[in-house]
Amino acid sequence: QVQLVESGGGLVQAGGSLRLSCVASGRTFITYTMGWFRQAPGKEREFVAAFRRSSGYTYYADSVKGRFIISRDNAKNTMYLNMNRLKPEDTAVYYCAFDPVDLSGTYGNRLVYDYWGQGTQVTVSS
């Protein structure tokens, strides 16, 4: 089992920045993918960004590329989502997710993630 706890959401003006945190605990895996997803009211949960442990690569949705960056603190078992130049359309509940299988090419598919955090609200005002 893996437990994920997100924090760092809040209200910010357009053009501002926020940093979300996801702390992982529980079972240790050699390879995994950790991802960020978001869900706006009335919309499906969508992929935002991911990190694959096996390759060390990070991946981003086109809508956030160049504005959002994943960073990690392995000593704290924490993954961060650094969000810059925020837009009102970034408003959503943001979720951290964990995939212990880590198959190539699946990082954007929410169905492959077995573990999810409770979510943290991000609201960007115009």
The mean pLDDT is 95
Largest sheet: 7 strands, mixed
Number of helices: 0
Rg: 14 Å
User: Strand share of the residues?
Assistant: over 45%
Order of helices and strands: EEEEEEEEEEE
Distance between the termini: 40 Å
**Number of DSSP E strands:** 11
Protein traits:
seven-stranded mixed beta sheet, 126 residues, mainly beta, 51% strand, four-stranded antiparallel beta sheet
Detailed description of the structure:
With 126 residues, the protein is mainly beta. The protein contains no helices and eleven strands. Strands 2, 4, 5, 6, 9, 10 and 11 form a seven-stranded mixed β-sheet that branches. A hairpin with a 4-residue loop joins strand 7 and strand 8. It starts with a strand and ends with a strand.
